[in-house]
Amino acid sequence: MKATALAHPNIALVKYWGKRDEALILPHQSSLSLTLAPMSVTTTVEFGATSSDHVEINGHTAKGSERERVLRVLEVVRAEKGGALGPARMVSRGDFPAAAGLASSAAGFAALAVAARAAAGLPEDAKAASMLARLGSGSACRSVQGGFCEWRRGEREDGTDSYAVQRFDAGHWPELRMVVAILNRDEKEVKSRDGMRHTVETSPYYPAWVKDAEAEVPRAVEVIQRKDLQALGDLSERNAWRMHATSLAAEPPLCYLHANTLGLIEHLREQRKKGMPVWFTLDAGPNPVLLTDAAHEVAAEALARACGAVDVVRCVPGGDAVLKSEHLF
Ligand code: 2P0
Questions:
Q1: Atom of ligand 1 nearest to the CA of 137
Q2: Angle CA(230)–CA(234)–CA(236) in degrees, nearest 5?
Q3: Relative to the CA of 122, which of 68, 100, 203, 251 has its CA 20 to 30 Å away?
Q4: What number does the ligand 1 atom closest to the CA of 10 have?
Q5: For 227-263, what is each residue's pLDDT tens digit?
Q6: Are the C-beta atoms of 163 and 125 separated by less than 8 Å?
Q7: Fold identical between 2-171 and 176-317?
Q8: Which residues line ligand 1 (CB under 6 A)?
Q9: DSSP character for 140?
Q10: Into which CATH architecture does domain 176-317 fall?
Q11: Domain boundaries of the chain, sorted by first residue
C-alpha cells in the first residue's frame, strides 16, 4: 500500500493555453513538450496507515487549494479500487533549485499519479497515469513520460481521450539543450490557471490561437523527427509569441513580459544573426528558456547572464517517471 515515484518537469514547445472544461482540466488544443532533466520531484504515497489524509510538500503541510488538488487525484485512485484503500499519507520533495523558474507542479502531479496508482496496486499504465496527473495540473500529463510528449486534446466530454503520448524518447535527440534564464525571481502576478481562463473569456484572438496551435503540433513532430534545430527553434518562438499575443489581447490585457525579457530576446536575435544556433520559448512568466545544442549551451548561459540573468539552469532531455524502491517515510 506504499509506493514512491520520481518525475521530471517539462517545457512546452507548443503551449497549452486554455481549458474547455475547468473541472476535468480538458484543453481547447493539443500541446507538445520536452521532459527536462536533471530536476525532479519524488513522491511517496501510502494508503491505510493514517486516520486521516495527510499531504506534505517540501517539508510543509499542504493547505487550501494545493491540498485539494492532491486529494482529488487520490480520490480518483480510491474510487477505482472501490473506495477500500483508506486515508492516504503523501510526502513530496522537489530538488529544484530555489529559482529554477520552472513550475514544479507538472513533475509533482506526474510523480503523485504514478506513486498513487502503484500504492493502490494498480498496474503501471502510462495512459492511465497521464489522465490522472492531468486532474492535478494540465501540463503534468506530459511529465509521466520522458522525451517529447504530445497531449492530445481529445474529443470526449468525460476526458477519457485527453492524455499525453510519447512521440520520441529522451534518447532521440540527446544533443538538444534547454537553458532556463532566470531574469526575475518574483512570483508572477497572475497564475497560469487564472491567466488562461481570462484569455479564453475575453481575448478576441483566442479562436485563432486554438486553430493555429493545433496545426503546429504535427509540424513540431515532423521537425523533431528530423532533428532540425532551426525549424524547431522557429516554431517554438512563433508559438510562444502567439500565446503571449492572445493574452495581450485580453481585456484587461495580460502581459507576462518584462523589459529585460525583451532585452534578452533582442540580444538573442543579434547573436543568431551572427551564426549562433539559439532560440527561445516563454511560458506564462518573464523568464525565457533558450533552445540550443550541446556545443552552444555554455555560450547560451553566457548570453543569458550578459542580459541580467540572476540564475541559469541548463537542462537535457529527461526520461520517464519511474518507481523507486526507497521511500520518503
Ligand atoms: C504549458 N503552461 O503548456 C503552458 C504554457 C504555462 C504556459 O501548462 O490550470 O499549471 O493546472 O492545468 O498546467 C501552466 O499551466 O495549469 C502551463 P492547470 P498548468 O506548459
A1: 11
A2: 115
A3: 68
A4: 20
A5: 999 999 999 999 999 999 999 999 999 999 999 999 9
A6: no
A7: no
A8: 12, 15-17, 25, 31, 103, 105, 137-139, 192-193, 283-284
A9: G
A10: 2-Layer Sandwich (3.30)
A11: 2-171, 176-317
